[in-house]
Design brief:
The complex is a heterodimer of chains A (487) and B (486).
Chain A lengths: L4 H17 L6 H27 L6 E6 L2 E5 L3 H24 L6 H20 L3 H19 L5 H32 L15 H19 L7 H4 L5 H10 L1 H17 L1 H7 L2 H20 L4 H22 L2 H32 L10 H4 L1 H15 L5 H15 L4 H26 L13 H19 L7 H13 L2
Antiparallel strand pairs in A: 1-2
Helix pairs in contact in A: 1-2, 1-4, 2-3, 3-4, 3-9, 3-14, 3-19, 4-5, 5-6, 6-7, 7-10, 9-14, 10-11, 10-13, 12-13, 12-18, 13-14, 14-16, 14-17, 14-19, 14-20, 16-18, 16-19, 17-18, 17-19
Chain B lengths: L1 H19 L4 H26 L2 E3 L12 E3 L1 H24 L6 H22 L3 H19 L5 H32 L4 H4 L8 H16 L8 H7 L2 H9 L1 H16 L6 H24 L3 H16 L2 H5 L8 H34 L10 H4 L1 H14 L6 H15 L3 H26 L12 H19 L2 H8 L4 H4 L3
Antiparallel strand pairs in B: 1-2
Helix pairs in contact in B: 1-2, 1-4, 2-3, 3-4, 3-10, 3-15, 3-20, 3-21, 4-5, 4-11, 5-6, 5-11, 6-8, 6-9, 8-11, 9-10, 9-13, 10-15, 12-13, 12-19, 13-15, 13-19, 15-17, 15-18, 15-20, 17-19, 17-20, 18-19, 18-20
The chains are: A mainly alpha (487), B mainly alpha (486).
């Protein structure tokens, strides 16, 4: 059982994905049961793994594809951090999407590719070797495309084109980096330090830059973030997937893996590539926030906010002090919970009240109270109001910045907090303080839409309140970093 | 071993039966498929245990008799042929249903003869026997191109025949020179010959002939009109299978029969032509507005990859550890290309029938009414782009690793750049398919016509996921030094 646990977790998303493709469009019950059932089984399996990895157990499932090409699933604590997030959000997003797509066409295609994306994310999280990581990273890229173009209109096709135009060259950069590295060192496993000494420093710096370029597209690092706002043409559940469950997270997770497990924090320092990465992340944080301020569409504003917030994770990892890394990794989960809340709510505003622009939010607090409360919690968390999730991340990032002697990063965090407030507070003000427009109408619709949003909002409050628990995102990130620094 | 003889005899018998009793053509073809799969399975299982299988029909010893030999690469190519054939036969059983006129009377014997010729070329090691196989394959292929009987198809067939016959003549000239100098034609015996001064010229002539038949740049001009003019099931065979046979012979000549006279510059020259083909074909594919022409120019590009094997595993490189990776990589690439390309042509044929044209403007939005076909097309596109988890990725990965290990990183750049280019040109039809609602009234394909491309494309993907068994198989008959590499 335990040997096959990683495989079972992968299959719990992959099997529903593949079966869903072959279901007729009208088989709603079967399709929903399949996907929700898969998500529940997955959550159960992950809980089992979470407890045993917390106690120090290790897993290894390897399959030889060809000599030198091994598919290795070796979930460790870092994998579980990401996997748990994506599995939980997969479950909630599926509930949301079932309600969202009711009566709309092409559902089998949507749910098939959606679950396939989750399967790819799970595989990517559990990858024990670079090439395995690449295979799932690529699968994720490809499985996302049909979701981006799901509505099959001009805007979404353009978004799909832009997405691939960014993603495929990035994959090529990633593959070059991996093959260059592995042609000298042999296959690289995350669990064992790679013999990087065989390469000279300049080559290592170029390889590191190639890795960051390859992952940076997904993580939305400037100047590689251009696809993310364009991809807003996709329906709300897809945005949730892109921004919280899978895609941008995969990029940030990949940067964490490369920095911590392939190069190692010490070597990143020694090569002098940590600070440039931190500066790039800081620039992304500020630029994303400034661009968010300029948007008057809710989803566009949220998209640029993602560009900014995901770089917190990169910043934490790049600063390389223990506290900064803890803050960055915890933010991987925190940002996911908060951002998915915001996207769920934005979807409800658009679907049930026809509101897509910011000025339409006026007075909706009274008409759609649950949605508005959830939205407000998410937004306040993003700003970093205690005791919400974003606060915890920012404290750890700030302390970490001081600890690793990069006090300038504190200024970045402070400026970003101000900017966050500047682009989120006007929305809350409109929701709660302004009178509704005379023709404003709307309701919260089915519980399938509102309940997931309220749950994720509650979760982003909960992970802040109970940050001290060992199984909170913060506690788990601390476990990861302790294992990394005190082997 | 008997399986080898069966693999040659069964398609021939099927071809005769389908002429004698045209109504039974589909049944006969299906039977040949079953027999072939069993034979290939037995052959592969035996080879994994005992190594390469050699048979000399009639028990006349070589050089008097003619040797047939199945090594790992041969079995991989045999399996490729059988899989593509099975898919094409399934799809063609609707379009060329027996008794539906001249085209269907012509298709079945031609397809089965093509299969027989492929198998003969894959298994044979005798240069003259290979010539006979080449000629049979060429004539059958020309017949398939001309099948529709339309004026431009006939013109394309004629052009193809002229190129192919010149290629045959060049090859035959080389064979005659070899026979004149050494008095033998078996590849195994030739590898131990005393080198003669004219060997280099003979090898060059044979290679040029084979390159013309494999449509290597700059001999590729016959391919686009010929493959685009044929009916879709025929195009699937022509593009997926036919060029692979002449490539295999060229590869065997350089690596098995006469590796001793191979010069490094020559290896680089061949790969350079391949690299030019990758980019030339890719750029031309980017400019086409007809789906079939995009697929056809993609064939020109994809065949170019195959020739990158020469500097990686030929000449001096043959003894190096990385040659193993290149060697298996190219086989994976050839097989997954055949499967994906056949799937793509079959899908294109269905689109073409559905809306009466294969212009990108006409197939707009067909994803909605033909989701299964589009899924197959997407999987095949993914394979041609060389993306994981397809078999083409496994192949590309191994070839790039070999290129880096041998210090010839530029071939790796060709592979990656070609992959990006193919993503560009295949994106256009994919986007068209997903663009909008599509026409309301289309001619719906039958279920098994839709399943055939899906089966082929899925096979190309599965090859990448379960590549360990084929990998072991491909190794059979390779020098041991190579296995430890990578």
């Amino acid at each position: 059982m335990s040997v096959y646990l990683p495989l079972l977790i992968l299959l719990s998303s992959l099997v529903p994905a593949l079966l869903t493709f072959f279901l007729p469009e009208r088989a709603h019950g079967l399709r929903n049961g399949l996907n929700l059932g898969g998500a529940l089984i997955k959550l159960g399996l992950i809980t089992v793994m979470l407890v045993s990895v917390g106690r120090g157990a290790t897993y290894d499932f390897s399959m030889q594809l060809a000599p030198g090409l091994v598919l290795a699933l070796r979930p460790d604590a870092l994998s579980l951090l990401f996997m748990t997030l994506s599995a939980l959000l997969w479950f909630l997003t599926t509930i949301y999407a079932i309600a969202y797509f009711e009566g709309k066409p092409n559902q089998s295609r949507f749910f098939g590719f959606f679950s396939l994306c989750v399967a790819a994310t799970t595989g990517l999280a559990m990858s024990g070797s670079l090439i395995t990581f690449f295979i799932f990273f690529e699968l994720l890229t490809l499985a996302t495309w049909p979701l981006v173009i799901h509505q099959q209109n001009r805007a979404s096709l353009a978004a799909g084109r832009v997405y691939l135009a960014y993603a495929l060259p990035a994959s090529a950069a990633l593959l070059i980096a991996i093959l260059w590295l592995e042609s000298v060192t042999g296959p690289i496993l995350f669990s064992t330090p790679a013999p990087l000494d065989r390469l000279d420093d300049t080559s290592l710096r170029i390889i590191f830059a190639l890795f960051i370029a390859g992952m940076g597209v997904k993580a939305g690092l400037i100047p590689l973030h251009g696809w993310l706002p364009v991809a807003m043409a996709a329906p709300a559940p897809v945005s949730a997937l892109l921004h919280a469950v899978a895609v941008v997270k995969a990029g940030a997770f990949g940067i964490a893996r490369i920095t911590i497990d392939v190069f190692g924090i010490d070597r990143v320092e020694a090569l002098g590539v940590g600070t440039p990465l931190a500066v790039l992340a800081s620039a992304t944080i500020l630029w994303g926030s400034i661009r968010a301020l300029q948007q008057d569409e809710i989803k566009k504003r949220l998209a640029f906010s993602t560009v900014s917030q995901v770089s917190y994770i990169v910043l934490g990892v790049a600063l390389a002090g223990p506290f900064a890394v803890i803050g960055g990794l915890a933010h991987l989960v925190h940002q996911g919970l908060m951002k998915i809340t915001l996207f769920f709510c934005a979807g409800i505003f658009a679907e049930r009240a026809g509101v897509k622009k910011i000025e339409g939010l006026n007075g909706l607090g009274r008409i759609m109270p649950w949605t508005s409360v959830a939205f407000s919690l998410g937004a306040l968390g993003m700003i970093g109001l205690p005791p919400l999730a974003g606060f915890v991340s920012k404290v750890y990032l700030g302390v970490g910045a001081l600890q690793s002697g990069s006090a300038w990063a504190l200024a970045v965090l402070a400026a970003s907090t101000l900017l966050n407030a500047a682009y989120f507070l006007p929305l809350l003000y409109r929701l709660w303080y302004l009178p509704p427009a005379p023709d404003a109408a709307g309701d919260e619709g089915k519980p399938g839409l509102v309940v997931p949003a309220v749950l994720t909002a509650a979760a982003s409050l909960g992970v802040g309140l109970f940050a001290g628990s060992p199984y909170s995102p913060l506690g788990w990130a601390t476990l990861i970093v302790t294992r990394e620094y005190l082997p | 071993m008997d399986a080898i003889v069966v693999l040659l005899a069964a398609p021939l018998a099927g071809a005769f039966l389908s002429i004698a009793a045209p109504r039974l053509a589909v049944v006969a073809s299906a039977l040949v498929c079953v027999v072939a799969f069993v034979a290939i399975g037995l052959l592969g299982a035996e080879m994994l245990e005992l190594g390469p299988a050699i048979v000399v029909p009639g028990n006349w010893g070589v050089p008097l008799g003619i040797g047939l030999e199945a090594d790992g690469k041969a079995v991989a190519f045999l399996a490729m042929t059988a899989l593509v054939m099975a898919g094409v036969i399934t799809a063609a059983s609707v379009e060329f249903a027996p008794g539906s006129g001249r085209r269907s009377f012509g298709f079945w014997p031609l397809a089965l003869l093509l299969w027989a010729a492929m198998n003969a070329m894959i298994l044979s090691r005798d240069l003259f026997n290979l010539y006979v196989g080449l000629e049979l394959l060429t004539l059958v292929a020309v017949g398939l191109v001309a099948l529709s009987g339309k004026a431009d198809a006939l013109a394309a067939a004629l052009r193809y025949m002229i190129f192919a016959l010149i290629g045959s003549l060049l090859y035959l000239l080389g064979v005659v020179m070899i026979y004149g100098a050494h008095g033998m034609l078996d590849m195994g015996l030739l590898s131990a010959r005393t080198p003669a001064p004219a060997d280099g010229l003979a090898l060059a002539l044979m290679t040029a002939g084979l390159a013309a038949k494999t449509a290597l740049f700059p001999f590729h001009v016959w391919l686009p009109p010929a493959h685009a003019g044929a009916p879709a099931p025929a195009s699937a065979l022509l593009s997926g299978l036919v060029p692979k046979a002449s490539f295999l012979i060229a590869l065997r000549l350089w690596s098995e029969a006469m590796p001793d006279i191979v010069r490094p510059e020559a290896l680089v020259l061949i790969a350079l032509l391949g690299a030019v083909a990758v980019f030339h074909g890719g750029l031309l594919a980017l400019r086409q507005v007809r789906l079939k022409l995009i697929i056809v120019y993609s064939t020109v590009a994809q065949l170019g990859y195959l020739f990158l094997i020469f500097p990686l595993a030929g000449g001096e490189g043959a003894a190096q550890p990385w040659s193993a990776g290149a060697w298996s990589g190219v086989t994976f690439h050839a097989v997954s290309h055949a499967l994906a390309k056949a799937a793509m042509f079959l899908a294109a044929g269905l689109y073409m029938r559905a809306v009466g044209s294969d212009e990108l403007g006409a197939i707009r939005g067909l994803a909605r009414s033909m989701p299964m076909t589009t899924f197959a097309f997407g999987l095949a596109a993914l394979t041609l782009m060389g993306l994981p988890p397809s078999g083409a990725f496994t192949g590309k990965y191994m070839m790039i690793t070999a290129a880096l290990a041998s210090g010839q990183w530029w071939w790796g750049v060709v592979l990656l750049g070609g992959g990006l280019l193919s993503a560009l040109y295949l994106y256009r039809p994919l986007e068209a398919l997903f663009d909008g609602e599509g026409p309301a009234e289309i001619i719906r394909p039958r279920r098994r016509e839709e399943l055939a491309p899906l089966f082929l494309a899925a096979a190309a993907i599965l090859l990448g996921i379960f590549s360990a068994v084929p990998f072991d198989l491909i190794y059979v008959g390779r020098p041991d030094a190579a296995v430890t590499g990578l």
